[in-house]
Amino acid sequence: MLLRPLLPDDRERIIDAFKRLSPESTYFRFWTSFRGANPTFIDRLCAEDQGQHASWIIVIEDNDDVPGVGGGSFWRSAENAEMAEVSFTVADEFQGQGAGTLLLAAIWEHAYAIGIRQFVGHVLDDNYVMLTWWSSLGAAHVRQPHGGWELTLTLDESLLPDTSAANSLRQRLAAIRAADSEQSHP
Question: Is 116 within 8 Å of 150 (Cβ atoms)?
Answer without folding.
Answer: no
